[in-house]
Please model this.
Amino acid sequence: MDERVIVRSGQRASVVGLGTWQLGADWGDVDDKEALAVLEAAVESGVTFFDTADVYGDGRSEQTIAAFLRARPELDIFVATKMGRRLDQIPENYVLDNFRAWNDRSRRNLGVDRLDLVQLHCPPTPVYSTDEVFDALDTLVAEERIAHYGVSVETCEEALTAIARPGVASVQIILNPFRMKPLREVLPAAQEAGVGIIARVPLASGLLSGKYTKDTVFAANDHRTYNRHGESFDQGETFSGVDYASGVEAAAEFADLAPEGFTPAQLALRWIIQQPGVTTVIPGARSPEQARANAAAAALPDLSDETLTAIRDLYDRRIKDQVEGRW
Model:
């Protein structure tokens, strides 16, 4: 699989990575054996980048990755984790002492002395404008607790603020055919600055797979049940902030645009891979089959101008007004 370089850090990531939120929690139940099988299928398909966080299953996702990599010491996998959501979401909690404690925990969970990449995990907006926060991150690099740092954001404005910080290596942002606003300013700014773009929620929480109907029922412990209106965290993390009923209708129209040989999910992933400035896209997977199918999108041909235009038209007609004013 092709790899792309984060210019500011020199790190390389496969164009399709693996998001591992679902291996920890909030997507229904995934047992340990199945979680390890997902990781195995991903790397056997060419994936070299895993994205996790210290709060995914209260560390379970990090620990599962560590167990997998201990059993496969020959692998060279770039692991990014996140920090910041273990305490109340107020700017005052984003301080060096907390960073050290969170990093120590993640290093233990992942079984490493130094973390490859640590991202602030969608912190309160003022954090991105606080010099002391980035001074503290620079201290973690100097102490060799982390190799590099980045941010995960909810809004395009937060992304642009972070890109202006010289030490920020990467920005993780929601980007998919139902969330196109980052194409206008965020991706060009990141490309000019040498900042990596990690595209998350690429399938709009599964909507873009075309598998769901208005009658689909998700498990009670799945955020697609309990966070549809932002009850537990930012609504944009669930179905990209799109209303579920109208999203299902738009997803059915999207599925009809898939060229021969593409699944709807692969169409969405291929669309993201083609956007200038994207470093890697991180779909999750609940089964080895999903992991392999997601990775296969990297080898599919580029989408035609006709298909790209049709996807943009669908977004403009059905989705844009729902999401662009908020994120």
The first helix runs from residue 32 to 44. The chain has a mean pLDDT of 96. The chain is about 35% helix and 15% strand.
